[in-house]
């Protein structure tokens, strides 16, 4: 992520993303560019979490972001989090491809052993996404944190390096152009491969 993504990401964190996407974020939708500027500068400077912009290859615009976080180099464990997709990115081939590319980076480039996904237990869309992407449910950490004035029970999911090869093959088969019809709808779901 860099300063060149500022305008695009301000749109993602404000007008391009529906209000319900902010329900389980620790921050709210940004109404003013001045407030987002401070938030964005902190994102740029941050090492953990390490924020990444999701770029649409056609438009060259940032249409979402996520972060690698809770980075444990000694044990080679890392978490994906702070996922915010604009309405353009939600439920798209690009969203799945972005998740595949970051997993490939984690398991093949930096050779981590464990890749985690954690979310508010009430966040059903996030839990469904984790399962669809191949994460295995590991349990519930009750009252794990407080945000927006309420307790959060955190659902934990993970993928381990031993599972990556099979998952990688599924992702690559799903992402093939032949798996999509002329309207861009999937022919086979990821969990059918």
From TrEMBL:
This is GNAT family protein. InterPro entries: Acyl_CoA_acyltransferase, GNAT_dom, Ribosomal_N-acetyltransferase. Gene3D superfamilies: 3.40.630.30. Signal peptide: none annotated. Transmembrane segments: none annotated. It comes from the Bacteria. Residues 8-136 form the N-acetyltransferase domain. PANTHER family: FAMILY ACETYLTRANSFERASE, PUTATIVE (AFU_ORTHOLOGUE AFUA_7G00850)-RELATED, RIBOSOMAL-PROTEIN-SERINE ACETYLTRANSFERASE.
């Amino acid at each position: 992520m860099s300063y060149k993504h500022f305008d695009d990401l301000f749109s993602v964190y404000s007008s391009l993303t529906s209000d319900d996407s902010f329900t389980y974020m620790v921050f709210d939708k940004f109404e003013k560019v001045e407030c987002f500027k401070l938030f964005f500068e902190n994102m740029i400077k941050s090492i953990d979490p390490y924020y990444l912009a999701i770029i649409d290859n056609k438009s060259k615009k940032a249409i979402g972001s996520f972060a690698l976080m809770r980075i444990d180099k000694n044990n080679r464990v890392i978490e994906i989090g702070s996922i915010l997709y604009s309405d353009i990115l939600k439920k798209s081939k690009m969203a799945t491809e972005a998740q595949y590319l970051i997993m490939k980076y984690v398991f093949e480039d930096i050779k981590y052993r464990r890749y985690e996904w954690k979310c508010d237990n009430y966040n059903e869309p996030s839990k469904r996404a984790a399962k669809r992407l191949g994460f295995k449910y590991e349990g519930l950490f009750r009252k794990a944190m407080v945000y927006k004035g309420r307790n959060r029970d955190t659902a934990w999911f993970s993928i381990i390096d031993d599972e990556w090869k099979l998952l990688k093959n599924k992702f690559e088969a799903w992402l093939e152009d032949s798996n999509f019809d002329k309207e861009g709808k999937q022919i086979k779901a990821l969990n059918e491969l």
